[in-house]
Amino acid sequence: MHAGDGRTVMTISANAFGQEPSLSPKMCEEAMEWWLDMQEANFDSPAQAAFMAWRGEHPLHELAWEKALALGEQLDALRTQGNPDLARQALLLPSQEGLSRRRAIKGLALLLAASTGAWLSRDSELVSRMSADYNTGVGEQRRVALASDLSLELNTRTAINARATDHRWHLRLLSGEVLVNTAVNPALFIETAQVRAQASSARFTIRQFDNGSTQLAVYRGSLDVIPTQASTWSTLQAGQLARFGPLGILDQGALQASAPAWSEGMIVADGQPLQAFLDELGRYRHGHLGCDAALANLRVWGTYPLADSDRVIDAVAQTLNLDVQRFTRLWVNLRPLPANV
């Protein structure tokens, strides 16, 4: 289907996959071929257009691509687990030991197909995200006007369900982060696995973290919040943010801006550790983004545009006098500059 903003949005039913999605050998080969193509320097605009067209041809193509990325990350992880030679051989398979590109693709596709059972939890998350009422992919953002007095802005890799019953809106954030701008009456309800909240006139963000917590930040108005396993409501006022677990507040603080930076196409580093900044930037791109452990606590400052994450990486590396190690398009690591540089 096509979204109102002109972008194509694919929705599928969770039942389309059954209990365990089945990918054909052809789909696995195509996904791994695209994965290899994206590591080449000549992956230009026409190639990108063809890749996006392939992803849209069949719902399972998106699943195959997600699995290909996960497999690539596992291969990359071999390097940090003490197997650099094996990792390099796996990542650069076509040029190693005279192997043809076709044999490389077939080998990786077999590995991908054999790993289906290992990604059941990832499949479930993907199916849930893609079957949601509104969703975004990696690095994608989307605005949705549910009513004249209620709008949503979805950040990267976000899924949310929305329904109106008895003249009241009910939202459920399944994953990711959303900016809600509401002036509805009666108040809308929004929930995650950790919290339930309600607001009638407010502008706020709600973000679900992978560690089982939810963060709320209020930019206008107020928000009433109750953890799912608690009995007491609390109120967040404009300028406040708090992170909740199912039992209560985990931490809270004050906002330093009038809007989330991502909604304005920016990412802000305010003295945070380098690894934390890279983790945040990594939400907007595929693959691995990290740094050597010895650099993890270097402080990062600055405001950067999200449109080109590679330029952000280069700018941060230049400021901190670091080397950018790009082993593939999907694997980037910051390290100290070599001694002879």
From TrEMBL:
<dbReference type="InterPro" id="IPR012373">
    <property type="entry name" value="Ferrdict_sens_TM"/>
</dbReference>
<feature type="domain" description="FecR N-terminal">
    <location>
        <begin position="29"/>
        <end position="70"/>
    </location>
</feature>
<dbReference type="InterPro" id="IPR006860">
    <property type="entry name" value="FecR"/>
</dbReference>
<dbReference type="Pfam" id="PF04773">
    <property type="entry name" value="FecR"/>
</dbReference>
<protein>
    <submittedName>
        <fullName>FecR domain-containing protein</fullName>
    </submittedName>
</protein>
<dbReference type="GO" id="GO:0016989">
    <property type="term" value="F:sigma factor antagonist activity"/>
</dbReference>
<dbReference type="InterPro" id="IPR032623">
    <property type="entry name" value="FecR_N"/>
</dbReference>
<dbReference type="Pfam" id="PF16220">
    <property type="entry name" value="DUF4880"/>
</dbReference>
<feature type="domain" description="FecR protein">
    <location>
        <begin position="133"/>
        <end position="222"/>
    </location>
</feature>
